[in-house]
């Protein structure tokens, strides 16, 4: 009996060994190829070969690390865009609130080409409140959605006259009551006409802060709160300018110029766009030519061939 059990056990072991030998060895999974950002932005050093440096995965970031990375990005952008400012022309809060309302669904350049005629004919809220809508529509036609915009600017002008004595209020809760004025427009006005900090969450800002993984929120109000918590309140207005300028010039929606980006080592989305430095440079948008009527603010900065700010327009 014992002998039969031993024979059976030996046969089973032999069978198992044969099966193991016949089974094909499993291949180890191929390592995932990771696109690595250059250690220093290639846009800043002409002809420099990108040095490899691993970007820390934001998913592994602590709250402290996220705050540090976000603030460092803002500091880097401040060096690249030292002249960042609202790209709408205005001489007073009334002109700014009207121009910002008109900027919806069009470019700031188009608005700046349109507002000189509008403000020449209707320089005050009282003038625009009493305007013939058809005449205003004709002036605003180039900006698109001109009928809705005409209704908004005439409506907000009437509200300014009737409720605020013809003056633009300096409080958020009052501004958002004006026709056509939401939180985004209100913060543009508060930050740039009254010097009161605010975060402007436009389409560029939303795209970039999500791309940089500062937040996963999609609602503008929640984005505003999440990003605002990463920075001192005093930084909010300039931060908005830096991010928006970068979104317009380098970090485009469809094809960002990753190889010419000054914050590439800090960006978890590096590699979504063109990483070759020479090809990336061709994607940069300088928006040369300035803006009509620009008088009170410093001219915009451009990147030179080495990626550093070029002299302002008109500078020797």
UniProtKB/TrEMBL annotation:
Keywords: 4Fe-4S, DNA damage, DNA repair, DNA-binding, Glycosidase, Hydrolase, Iron, Iron-sulfur, Lyase, Metal-binding. It catalyses: 2'-deoxyribonucleotide-(2'-deoxyribose 5'-phosphate)-2'-deoxyribonucleotide-DNA = a 3'-end 2'-deoxyribonucleotide-(2,3-dehydro-2,3-deoxyribose 5'-phosphate)-DNA + a 5'-end 5'-phospho-2'-deoxyribonucleoside-DNA + H(+). CDD domains: ENDO3c. It holds the Pfam family EndIII_4Fe-2S. Binds 1 [4Fe-4S] cluster. Residues 1-62, 289-316 are annotated as: Disordered. Residues 7-46 have a biased composition (Low complexity). NCBIfam families: nth. DNA repair enzyme that has both DNA N-glycosylase activity and AP-lyase activity. The DNA N-glycosylase activity releases various damaged pyrimidines from DNA by cleaving the N-glycosidic bond, leaving an AP (apurinic/apyrimidinic) site. The AP-lyase activity cleaves the phosphodiester bond 3' to the AP site by a beta-elimination, leaving a 3'-terminal unsaturated sugar and a product with a terminal 5'-phosphate. Belongs to the Nth/MutY family. This is Endonuclease III. The gene is nth.
């Amino acid at each position: 009996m014992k002998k039969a059990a031993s024979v059976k056990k030996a046969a089973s072991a032999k069978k198992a060994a044969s099966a193991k030998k016949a089974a094909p060895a499993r291949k180890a999974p191929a390592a995932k190829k990771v696109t690595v950002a250059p250690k220093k932005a290639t846009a800043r050093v002409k002809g420099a070969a990108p040095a490899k440096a691993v970007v820390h995965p934001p998913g592994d970031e602590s709250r402290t690390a996220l705050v540090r990375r976000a603030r460092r990005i803002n500091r880097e952008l401040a060096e690249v865009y030292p002249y960042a400012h609202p790209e709408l022309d205005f001489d007073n809060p009334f002109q700014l609130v009207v121009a910002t309302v008109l900027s919806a669904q069009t470019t700031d350049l188009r608005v700046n080409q349109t507002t000189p005629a509008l403000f020449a004919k209707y320089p005050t809220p009282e003038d625009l409140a009493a305007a013939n809508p058809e005449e205003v529509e004709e002036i605003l036609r180039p900006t698109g959605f001109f009928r809705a915009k005409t209704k908004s600017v005439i409506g907000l002008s009437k509200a300014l006259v009737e409720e605020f004595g013809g003056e633009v209020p300096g409080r958020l809760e009052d501004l958002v009551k004006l026709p056509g004025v939401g939180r985004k427009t209100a913060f543009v006005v508060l930050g740039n006409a009254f010097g009161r900090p605010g975060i402007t969450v436009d389409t560029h800002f939303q795209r970039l802060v999500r791309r940089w993984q500062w937040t996963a929120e999609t609602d503008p109000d929640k984005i505003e709160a999440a990003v605002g918590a990463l920075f001192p309140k005093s930084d909010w207005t300039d931060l908005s300018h830096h991010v928006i300028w970068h979104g317009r010039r380098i970090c485009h929606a469809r094809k960002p110029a990753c190889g010419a980006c000054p914050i590439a080592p800090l960006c978890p989305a590096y590699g979504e766009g063109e990483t070759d430095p020479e090809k990336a440079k061709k994607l940069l948008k300088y928006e040369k030519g300035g803006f009509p009527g620009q008088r009170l603010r410093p001219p915009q900065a451009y990147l030179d061939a080495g990626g550093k700010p070029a002299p302002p327009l008109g500078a020797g």
